[in-house]
Give the backbone structure.
Amino acid sequence: MFGVDNPRIIAAVRAYVKLSRASRAVNAGTEARLTAASITHTQLGVLEALLHLGPLTQRALIDKVLTSPGNMTDLIDKLEQRGYVARCRPANDRRNVEVALTEAGTNFIGNLFPAHAGDIAAAMGGLTDAEIATLDGLLRRLGHHAAACNRTQKD
């Protein structure tokens, strides 16, 4: 590898490239259904988070979906225009604005998510159940470590 002779760095770069390619391939396997539903992966992530976790603040959604504050505002605006989410102020803390699924949003994501989950499972069909469980644990560890490194770099 040009300019790099450390075997650990070379292995990490190769694994990173494979992780990126695999992620793109799995996403490509879900793209047709999302395009037919006129929704992006990131919009789906917002709806999915709200479906599984209930109403969340915009900040919490940013952390869950891993997008910028400006992009999250745009995402919520578009989902609100389609009638899928509503902004509301909780009675116990009027300083915050929560985003919640509307009935139309609940119906939309409730119908779409099972098929989307099936598309993901089909794309990962080359792995055994045990390999998926191992991958899940490894990716969780990697994500936590990378996030900690990112926080340290910002300090």
Observations:
- The beta strands are 56-57, 85-88, 98-101.
- The helical segments are 7-36, 41-53, 58-65, 69-81, 103-123, 129-154.
- The longest strand covers residues 85-88.
- The chain has a mean pLDDT of 92.
